[in-house]
Design brief:
Elements: H1 10-13, E1 28-30, E2 42-44, H2 47-64, H3 70-77, H4 85-96, H5 109-124, H6 132-138
Antiparallel strand pairs: 1-2
Helix pairs in contact: 2-5, 2-6, 3-4, 4-5, 5-6
């Protein structure tokens, strides 16, 4: 009997490997409804566009919002009302080789690629993008840090 192919995870199907909520991001549309799916997440036309949105959101958290630890970033990314945030934080910190409260510093291509890869794997149970993650991470967006108030 032939094996039935498994359906890719929602984030992969939506070209949205970070499972970003739809917020009218450039190039995104609201995912369609389907059996067992209440539309909530963004759907991008290409995996590269979804990876760019993931990178850009991480940069906003780190620069605009000054979230500088895995604990701060993931607590915002995956709030406890919807997620096992502690487990998510611990997993990402372990992948990065830091403690949850280690100050990560400014976003660099290497740091962003590591964060993106950890988030993609946690959200989807896989990372089918290979080198594309590092390529997208290397094209840092132009974000300015706002002055402290």
């Amino acid at each position: 009997m032939p094996q039935t192919p498994t359906r890719p995870p929602r984030g992969i199907r939506n070209n949205n490997p970070g499972n970003l909520n739809f917020a009218h991001q450039p190039g995104a549309v609201l995912e369609p409804a389907g059996p067992g799916i209440t539309p909530r997440f963004a759907r991008f036309s290409t995996s590269e566009a979804g990876l760019m949105a993931l990178r850009d959101q991480l940069c906003r958290y780190m620069v605009r919002d000054r979230l500088d630890t895995v604990a701060c970033i993931i607590s915002q990314w995956a709030p406890p009302a919807e997620n096992d945030t502690r487990r998510y934080i611990d997993t990402v910190a372990q992948v990065l080789g830091v403690t949850p409260d280690t100050v990560l510093g400014p976003p660099t291509a290497t740091l962003l690629a590591s964060l993106m890869e950890a988030i993609i794997h946690y959200e989807n149970g896989q990372n089918p993008y290979g080198r594309l993650v590092a390529q997208v991470a290397a094209a840092l967006p132009a974000l300015r840090q706002t002055p402290a108030t």
